[in-house]
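Dear support,

Our group has been running a series of protein-ligand predictions, and this particular one with zinc ion is the one our PI (initials K.S.) wants archived with full inputs and outputs. We had some confusion internally about which version of the output was final, so please treat the block below as the authoritative record. The input we submitted was:
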Amino acid sequence: MSAVLRLTVTKCRASGIVVILIACLMAVGLSVYFLAGRPYPTANSCSVSPKRPSLPSFGAAPKIAQSVIRLPRTVLPHHYDVRLLPILEKGNFTVLGRVAIDLQCVEETDRIVLHSSDIKVDLKSVQVIEQGEMAKNMLSVESIDYETVTEFLIIRLNAKHKVKLAKRTNYTLSMDFVGNLTDTSAGFFRSVYVEYGVERYMAVSQMEPTDARRVFPCFDEPNMKAIFTVSIGRHRDMTALSNMPLIDTTAIDGMQDFYWDHFAPTLLMSTYLVAFVVANFTKIEADVGNANWKFNIHVRTSAVSQAQYAKVIGPKAQAFYEDYFQMPFPLPKQDMIAIPSAFVGAMENWGLLTYGESVLLYDADVSSLDDRQTVVELVTHELAHQWFGNLVTMDWWSDLWLKEGFTSYIECLAAEHVDPSLERLEQFVTSALHTVMRLDALESSHPISVLVNHPDEIGELFDDISYKKGAAITRMLANFIGAKSFRNGLTHYLRIHQYGNAVQDDLWNALDRQADLDQVFLPTNVKTIMDTWTLKMGFPVVTVQRDYCSQNVTITQKRFLVRKSNSTTADPTVYLWWTPLTYTTDFRTIGSTWLAENQSSKNLTLEFEIRDDEWVIFNVNETGYYRVNYDARNWHLIAKQLMTNHTAISVINRAQIMNDALNLARAGLLVYEVPLNLTKYLEREEEFLPWEATLTALSYLDSMMKRTPGYGLLKNYVLKILSPLYDSLGFVNRSSDSHLTGKLRRKVVESCCSMGHKDCITKAIDSYHRWMSDPQNTTIVPAMLKRVVACTAIRHGGEVEWDFAFQRFRDSNVASEKATLLSSLSCTQESWIIARMLEMCLNPTTGFRTQDALDVIKTLAGNPIGRFLTFNFTREKWLEMTKIFSSIHNLAHVFESVTKAFNTDMELKELSDFVGRNKELLVSAMTRSTQQSIDRVRSNLSWMKQNYRHVVNWLQKANTDVTFQPST
Ligand code: BES
Ligand code: ZN
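Confirmed final output from the archive:
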């Protein structure tokens, strides 16, 4: 226990702190409420709570053994009665609370250990009462201890009289406490927004992963499920919401105009899913047909019209999952609420989903189709959690990916159902797979499944590896096991573990059973296959070597790394995977086989009928999580096919080929000539995915070359291949456009305008100026092009253009439009405006809100002129920023954005120096992300040394080429 800070308040010392207690009471400002009969809760004597040290969030997180940081399982909670009264009053943002927890003792003990942090517990109110037929037996409490590092609250029973909790006996532990209504987005917090010119407050909770303990003392581990009976106090003008429906409202004694809202008891669930909101909002009831539940959307009154889309797709997605999982939604109601500020993303609280406004609301006039896609993605994601996560929960955070990764794949199936026009599933490879492969190709990546202990480590798990790699390997699994067995296996898993917890092996067992029933051929069991993908980091590159005489194809695998360090530390992992291979020579017949994990079968030889002038393509529709490399001749045959008739290869495989080839070259596994030659076919490519995959991969060349003399060549070449598409698509939307065509036009226009295409720039500036002269007209700049139009006009303009966008940003009532305008502000090329933005962003009185600051810094970091100013600013203000932003993970992203294009020795040195000097601040919760940043910069440096010249030489040749023809 020596590593654990401890502060003990004994009952006898409690009398000595009466003065402090009175001060506490006055601070909460509710003496009338307490003195008038003290119904519930009371805070007339609060023990001294240690101030939460800055350690857990930003200090050096001590490595504490799992056994110390996990709760002892001597008592288990089965019911909580939680009462909270949030005070939404300027200068007095507190929460008065009381909790009564019914426990069962499973092993004799003299103490109760549970979680609590930042809460002042009233020592005198702590009671432990034995339940049962016998007369109520109150156990004597000796002391309560706070252990600040582990965030434990230890209630010790009277040792002198040997008071103990007896095995198999039930008790009720109850206490009163005072907590904070914080201004972060964690725990129970206040959110401030302006409506009709009036500043308003609301209270919202966000518990995941480990903040329920900041709201009420509880057993805050996902496998300590219980039933929660919640009562929330509120003013007459406000509405309270919680996981379950309201069943009763009673007046609060002694507090005029205040009421308790009592909610129905929940089902058995984890603490991180408990939720409450107190707000003055409008409720919109959705039409649910003959479903067994109600479905409501809650928004601020001035945004009601923006909730129509969510109102339609919400119940539709929930009904889809009931059918897909073959299990009903078990609660009587579902609420989705849009939080106006200080809330990003969304949270799946059971029965009360919380969203940032920009991801739930959609205004057809000013929001783009992409904004609509975001709404679908988040709504389908959070609703999938109602089964995957809420009904069946991971046993511990190490298995976080089980809910986040699976859900990130399954949400695509629901999105296809609720809005097929978005073609969500089709976009999976570019939105998830290619994105996460970039991260997972670093030596400092991590396995999907990792041991975590400390809350900082738990927080660090919410990354692209858990979400996107988790989703990608789930998609791979669904493909090799088959959609039907996958679905029925999931249903079986949910049925067995409902209202309980599970580890990944439970899921593998359920799928194995189903695969056996359905007689699916697998080379080994699901667990053995999937363990290679979840327990090892990284992924393979599969190399296909054809023998053109014997027609044999030899296949090998090795770990794909963007850069191999000279690290001498031995890593005992054998980087081989059970890899499902699919291949085709015509996209009509698909062959399949497996690469085994064991060393002895490292090489697989396939014999199949294939002419030596025919290509073969592996990883059909990129359902496998791996890259593919070929011998030079097969690459050449693929290039020839692309140049003559690219549609003979599927759209997803065209995206795969471009992304694989460019990344293989980046990693030094393929000469740059091959992918660069492949890009020539793009002159005839009209589909979104191959362009998206190529431009994303080329953006690496763009960021490396941007400050080099060779950049002009790159610009000219990219414009050359983009121009035909720019000409045929045009600048303006057409009503006949599909969603992906709209996305493609935006991508093309963005690239053309940023690379200096004259017509593009003129059109963008022209429409921006027309908008400036008629600001209320929403038809001048189409929503889909608003970012690129504003960005281009600001990039080529000055203060007036910037000020206009800033004004529109401030005035807009639509959160997604605000986000679009915010990002375009960073396009300015004026150093002084950049400096002014940086200065403004940490000061909420300037018009940027606290939650905007990180976006401002991240987008400015992507601006070549802003990059160094931003790095300097970040270095100077780091300490301040760690205090302002509650989530270290947001800061990790800032750090990544600021440094990711660094590619000189000097920049590497500056970065390493900064990390070295700030070990205390950076190393704890950002250990991995800091290492990843350094890793990236090192690989940028070696890229410059190895490839820059070759690429420039190739571009020089290509730009003088009049026609692109495959060299046969
Ligand atoms: N469970 C998460 C919310 C969350 C994230 C809580 C991190 C605590 C820490 C939720 O289901 C989620 O994943 N939200 C995502 C959106 C999703 C579509 C990827 C988010 O908030 O970004
Ligand atoms: Zn999620």
